[in-house]
Amino acid sequence: MTDATPCPSPAQLRTAHARPMPPPKGSWRQRCGTGLAQAWHTWALLLALALAGQAQAQPLKGWSEWKAAYMQADGRVLDTAQQNISHSEGQGFAMVLATAANDRAAFDVLWTWTQNNLGTSRNDGLFAWRWEPGRAVTDANTATDGDLFIAWGLARAAEQFKHPPYREQAARIAKAIREKAVVEGTPWGTVLKPGASGFDTPRGLVVNMSYWVFPAFDELNKVDPSPQWAALTRSGLRLAEIAQFGRWKLPPDWLLLVNPLEPDPGRPPRHGYDATRIPLYLYWAKLAEPSKLVSFNQFWNHFKCDAFLPGWANVLDNSIDSYGADPGVVAIRTLLTTGKAPATKPPIAGQGYYSATLGLLVDVAAREGGRR
Predict the structure, then answer these.
(1) How crowded is the C-beta side of 59, counted as CA atoms within 13 Å?
(2) Which of 117, 132, 164, 260 has a 20 to 30 A CA-CA distance from 319?
(3) So what's the architecture of 62-367 in CATH?
(4) Amino acid 303: pLDDT
(5) CB–CB of 237/287 below 8 Å?
(6) Is the CB of residue 152 less than 8 Å from the CB of residue 94?
(7) Which residues are catalytic?
(8) Over the Cα atoms of the chain, what is R_g?
């Protein structure tokens, strides 16, 4: 966002007043004769199909650098910010990215490592979320977003690599997610537990809205048909609409399902590195209508200097992170405000695992998502 005044300091940004967003610009429409319009429609459809094919075939820029920095030859993904641990989320992210990069070899080793190291400590079809070097699995509980990405990656791979067994494996995991992590009949509809256990409190269920991986739901419904997938989309959209706190009306990373909703009192009340994925998944699923992005845009547009975006905001006292968000988070803002991934990014290896991974996910979402 360009501004004639100099970029304010972080201290000034804490107290600056947000400016109102300008109204959206009008659209234009071209009229033509019936025959010409039909011909134009046919040509546009053929062009769109051709471009879709090119998008599917084109390489994923930065994928080779990402693999060199964060993926071992055996398929283990390293979270370099957490002592090189591995987790189901990282494995699932990488499996989806491998399908977008059309990298069958990488996908196969990622899936093999995931099965052999995260899947063997459970007997319910899901995956342990945390694995540490030298200690193997140190937390056998699940992370539902990781399980969703793993299942979604397999469903994508079944189509991308024409390998039906992947579809069967995706269906088994998707069914297990519904059995272990989906809760029906709440006042907010059918909701998603963050893991198989540990999120039921005396006051209510704690959820993480970034675990609603919207683009995965329709795809998993194809391999595991169930009305619960569409119900999850509805509940996720509803929660995003009403779970709004603080001056920017932002959803927190962790939410307590009480009436009225509250940020989870057991964790920092922040809109941060989890909740920042909510608009990314909305865009990827083609659900990013302007009305669903008002709160995010208010937050993003509050800061006059494009070079600065807080990594988090406290949704109770409106304080912010003064150090600034990582490039991957800034890439999400760029995608949602321009419809395009950033043209330039810092080197993959210098960003750190999570930022670099978000940046690649933004690239894939820009290719596959959009607005309906």
Answers:
(1) 5
(2) 260
(3) Alpha/alpha barrel (1.50)
(4) 83
(5) yes
(6) no
(7) 89, 145
(8) 21
- Measuring CA to CA, which residue among 114, 102, 196 is closest to residue 149? 114
| Residue 341 and residue 42 in contact, taking contact as beta carbons nearer than 8 Å | no
Six token digits for residue 46: 């053929």
pLDDT for residue 149: 98
Q: DSSP string covering 208-246, please?
A: -GGG--HHHHHHHHHHS--HHHHHHHHHHHHHHHH--BT
pLDDT tens-place string over residues 152-207: 999 999 999 999 999 999 999 999 999 999 999 999 999 999 999 999 999 999 99
Say whether pLDDT at 10 is over 90: no
Residue 366, Cα to own-chain centre: how many angstroms?
A: 12
Instruction: Dump pLDDT digits (tens) for 186-201.
Output: 999 999 999 999 999 9
CA distance 261 to 102: 42
- For the chain, domain boundaries: 62-367
**Torsion angle, alpha carbons of 114, 85, 178, 154, to 10:** -30
CA within 13 Å, CB half, 223 = 29
Residue 325 sits at φ, ψ, to 5 deg, of -75, 155
74/2: higher pLDDT: 74
Token readout for 47 is: 């062009």
**Which long-range contacts (C-beta less than 8 Å, at least 24 apart) are formed by 75-83?**
75/106, 75/108, 75/109, 75/110, 75/111, 75/112, 75/113, 75/114, 76/113, 76/117, 76/131, 77/110, 77/353, 78/353, 79/353, 79/354, 80/352, 80/353, 81/352, 81/353, 81/354, 83/132, 83/133
Higher-confidence residue: 45 or 134? 134
Token code pair at residue 69: 């920095």
